[in-house]
Amino acid sequence: MLLHLSTWSEVAQFLQRSRAIVVPIGSNEQHGPTGLLGTDWLCPEIIAREAEKDADMLIAPTFNIGMAQHHLAFPGTISLRPSTFIAAIGDWVRSLAGHGFTRILFLNGHGGNIASIEAAFSEIYADSSFTRERAGFALKLCNWWDLEGVGELARTQFPEGHGTHATPSEIAVTQWAFPDRIKTADYAPPIAPSGPIRDALDFRARFPDGRMGSNPGLATPEKGGELVKLAAQSLVRELAAFANESVPA
Ligand code: NI
């Protein structure tokens, strides 16, 4: 069930049978010469929607702008600074928790979001901790590449040249979902350099075409489809375990 294609009364009915919701979250940022700008929000959205086809689960609209300050020297990137991102996550959670959702799973597609999502969770929990009240809800961060079995599959598919940004696995997922948007380039060098992440101009100087340690030319739609199917199955299990987690009185 997709929240944005449901009515408020359908959501109210859903809450009678489940208190869990999945929020795909990512970033709109450059992904090398051939990667779609939406790659990091498209991947969790694609996986969540695939999972939803066979399971009674509710998928929130995708939180599609994240913490991508280091990519701002490439056209098309849109970023929130960490403090804005943390504040916005807080308002999403308070909106959903107020309706009665007690298990909110953020399915993340951008490594650069992790620190801020974790900080957002701590800010939110602090609201109740300082007043010694129970929050009444639990938050969970799952990176799609960490879903059970996905990392192993990606390492089998791409034993070298996976890298950490504009990776062949994430490019493959978008190729599977949008086969008419596949782009090609002559990558030079085939495997991009690696290094630290600092500010936007430093990033562009270190990684001139936007890739980090990766060879996106290894991506194929077929490999992307394998990743999506496996990730979707793992997400269903992950959500079920989270929804059924017992909370001490
Ligand atoms: Ni990415």
Brief synopsis:
The chain has 8 helices and 3 strands.
Secondary-structure map with pairings?
Blueprint (H helix, E strand, L loop, with lengths): L7 H10 L2 E6 L13 H14 L29 H18 L3 E6 L5 H17 L7 E6 L6 H8 L10 H10 L22 H7 L14 H23 L6
Helix pairs in contact: 2-6, 2-8, 3-4, 5-8, 6-8
Nickel (II) ion (NI) binds next to helix 2.
Characterise this structure:
The protein has 249 residues and is mainly alpha-helical. It has one domain: Rossmann fold (3-Layer(aba) Sandwich), CATH 3.40.50.10310. A three-stranded parallel beta sheet has the order 1-2-3, sandwiched between helices. Helix 2 packs across helix 8, helix 3 crosses helix 4 and helix 6 packs across helix 8. The relative contact order is 0.18. The model has no long low-confidence stretch (mean pLDDT 98). Bound molecules: nickel (II) ion. The site of nickel (II) ion has 6 residues, from helix 2.
Please state the overall shape, judged from the principal axes of the Cα atoms. globular
Kindly give the count of domains. 1
The first-level CATH class is given as Alpha Beta
Please state the structural category.
mainly alpha
Q: Counting H and I runs of at least 4 residues, what is the number of helices?
A: 8
User: Sheet bearing the most strands, described?
Assistant: 3 strands, parallel
Please bin the fraction of helical residues: 40-55%
The first-to-last residue Cα distance is 31 Å
Give the bound compounds. Answer: nickel (II) ion
How many β strands by DSSP?
A: 3
